[in-house]
Amino acid sequence: MATKVSAQEVKELRDKTGLGMMDCQKILVEAQGDPKKLMQLVEERRRKTTSAKGGRTTSQGRIETYIHHDGKTGAMVEVNCESDFVARNETFRALCKQLAMQVVASQPEYVRREEVPADIVERETAAYAQDVAGKPENIRDKILEGKLKSFYEQRVLLDQPFIQDPSQSVRDLINDTISKTGENIQVARFVRFRVGERPLELAPASEAASS
Known about the structure:
Layout: H1 7-17, H2 21-31, H3 35-53, E1 60-67, E2 73-81, H4 84-87, H5 90-106, H6 118-131, H7 137-155, E3 161-162, E4 165-169, H8 170-181, E5 186-194, E6 200-201
Antiparallel strand pairs: 1-2, 2-5, 3-4, 5-6
Helix pairs in contact: 1-2, 2-3, 3-8, 5-8, 6-7
């Protein structure tokens, strides 16, 4: 027998996740009161939603600035969305502010992995391969994969742990906002300033899905 869910339960899940009413109802019925399965279904639906929106044009958006309280460090981030309506949305604006703070705090060099020059990736991979050369063959690849993951988490904005909640990545944060707003969202570029240092400015990135 299918589990019955109330309108209040559907509303609460929608408010929490930003998913559509019908999606929330289906998820609640399928989860059958199991919290772990509920969150698994929510994440699966979010991934599908994000993937479907990933190729849509983002010609609107916002340029957000953040200056650290010491007045010596700041950042400017361009974040794109599909409509001017979402660009004015508080959820989207909050995301932009969080991304600017992330750039100041974590000092990424690239928006996404595809922007890291191939020679740098090759150099890092070679160095890590030397580090693990003496390890057993059956775990060598796994260790190498972990080292590369750590490299990307340090250098690439989307891969970095979110400073306000390290249990999720910046990519997760963006995907969560995509789910809530219903639009594709892309980080186009950023620049970080530090008094006495020349800023690193990135050229506009090609539109690639954030997921």
